[in-house]
Design brief:
The complex is a heterodimer of chains A (111) and B (112). Chain A contains no helices and eleven strands. Chain A is mainly beta and 111 residues long. The chains are: A mainly beta (111), B mainly beta (112).
Chain lengths: 111, 112
C-alpha cells in the first residue's frame, strides 16, 4: 500500500541551526512527492515538489529512491519557519491521482 | 483573482444534525477534494471529484457525502453529525496531475 511516514511529530531547533524534516514513502513505481507547509491559523501551501527541483524559502528536498526518502532541508533555520510541515505522495490509483499525506511534523524554531 | 473559499469558517452543531460545509473555487479546476485534519492523523481524504457528476470515496468517507453539480462547488454533507467528526475540514482543488493542490482556509467543525 502507498504510504507516507513522517517519523517526527515535533522538531525543535534554534535559529541558525540546520533543519531536516524526514519523510519516507512506500510506493513501487516512480513517486511524485510534495512538501506542504501550514503556518499558524493559515491554509496549507505548496512548498515544493520534487519534479521541479526548486528551492523555496531556502528549503530543498532531494528524492532518494534507494532509501525511499524525500527529506526537507534548510541550512539555517529562521523563526518564521515555525510551522506544520506535511509530506505528500501522489496516489496513482485514481485516473488523475489524489495526494496521500503524512501525519505532519511541527517545526519550532527558537530564538 | 481566482480563489478557493470555504464556509463557514467555524461551525458548532449538535449530534445527529445534518451539516453541509461549502467549498467554492473560481480556478475552473476539474479536481476537488475534501480532507479532514486531526492531531496525530494528519490529513485524511474524505471524498474527491474529478469533474461534474463524478464523486469518489476516500479513506474516511463513512458518514459523509458530496455532490458535484457544477465545476465550482463541492459541498460536503455530514448526514448525522457525530462527535468523532469534530475536526478541521479542508477543501482543495487542482487542474491536473502535474500540479499540487490549492487549499481553502478550512472549516473548524465542533459536534457537541
Amino acid at each position: 500500500a502507498q504510504r507516507v511516514t513522517q517519523p517526527e511529530k515535533l522538531l525543535s531547533v534554534f535559529k541558525g541551526a540546520p533543519v531536516e524534516l524526514k519523510c519516507n514513502y512506500s510506493y513501487s513505481g516512480s513517486p511524485e512527492l510534495f512538501w506542504y507547509v501550514q503556518y499558524s491559523r493559515q491554509r496549507l501551501q505548496l512548498l515544493l515538489r520534487h519534479i521541479s527541483r526548486e528551492s523555496i524559502k531556502g528549503f530543498t528536498a532531494d528524492l532518494n529512491k534507494g532509501e525511499t526518502s524525500f527529506h526537507l532541508k534548510k541550512p539555517f533555520a529562521q523563526e518564521e519557519d515555525s510551522a506544520m510541515y506535511y509530506c505528500a505522495l501522489r496516489n496513482y490509483g485514481g485516473s488523475q491521482g489524489n495526494l496521500i499525506f503524512g501525519k505532519g511534523t511541527k517545526l519550532s524554531v527558537k530564538p | 483573482d481566482a480563489e478557493i473559499t470555504q464556509s463557514p469558517r467555524h461551525k458548532i452543531t449538535e449530534t445527529g444534525r445534518q451539516v453541509t460545509l461549502a467549498c467554492h473555487q473560481t480556478w475552473n479546476h476539474n479536481n476537488m477534494f475534501w480532507y479532514r485534519q486531526d492531531l496525530g492523523h494528519g490529513l485524511r481524504l474524505i471524498h474527491y471529484s474529478y469533474g461534474v457528476q463524478d464523486t469518489n470515496k476516500g479513506e474516511v468517507s463513512d458518514g459523509y457525502s458530496v455532490s458535484r453539480s457544477n465545476t465550482e462547488d463541492l459541498p460536503l454533507t455530514l448526514e448525522s453529525a457525530a462527535s468523532s467528526q469534530t475536526s478541521v475540514y479542508f477543501c482543495a482543488s487542482s487542474e491536473w496531475r502535474d500540479q499540487g493542490y490549492t487549499f481553502g482556509s478550512g472549516t473548524r467543525l465542533t459536534v457537541v
